[in-house]
Amino acid sequence: MAVLMSGCSSDDPAQAKEWQRDYCAKLGSWQDAAHTTTTSEADADTSDGQSVQSPELDYTESAGHAVIEASKRLDRADLVHGGTHILDDTVNAVGGDVGAEGRAVSYCDSSGFETLVSSAG
Fold first, then answer.
1. HSE (CB half, 13 Å, CA atoms) of 21?
2. Residues of 16-39 as b/e, b for ≥16 C-beta within 10 angstroms?
């Protein structure tokens, strides 16, 4: 636990752990939505070709904003992972960077919330 919390400037370890849990839950929700949207878009490409924004895409955008906001809270707490900021990795992951998504997932794994996220890729 000392290694886990060493990068966090929060004076309340329980609060920091709650922020981490919240972040990882939101990351997992975004992953689920993003992977569903990717599958839906592939299916739409083989259909009639009409372009209509799906509810899944709206939810994916909303989930992306939510996980970025959660990462901002961790960033303000100066919680750094692997020499990078969780905020940077999250923004890049939501933007489609699979490597950044992997680092974000790794953060959740090392925080003890691996069951809240999917493996990246």
1. 6
2. bbebbbbbbbbbbbbbebbeebee
Contacts of 92 (CB under 8 A, 6+ apart): 99, 100
96: left (phi over 0), alpha (psi -120 to 50) or beta: left
Helix ranges, 6-97 (H): 13-45, 55-76, 86-94
Q: Is the pTM of the predicted complex or chain greater than 0.85?
A: no
Measured in residues, the chain has a length of: 121
Digitized pLDDT (tens) for each residue of the chain, 121 residues in all: 333 444 445 578 899 899 999 999 999 999 999 988 766 555 555 555 555 556 678 889 999 999 999 999 998 887 766 666 899 999 999 999 999 999 999 999 988 999 999 986 5
- Give every CB contact of residue 35 below 8 A, 6+ residues apart in sequence: 118
At residue 96, the 3 state secondary structure works out as coil
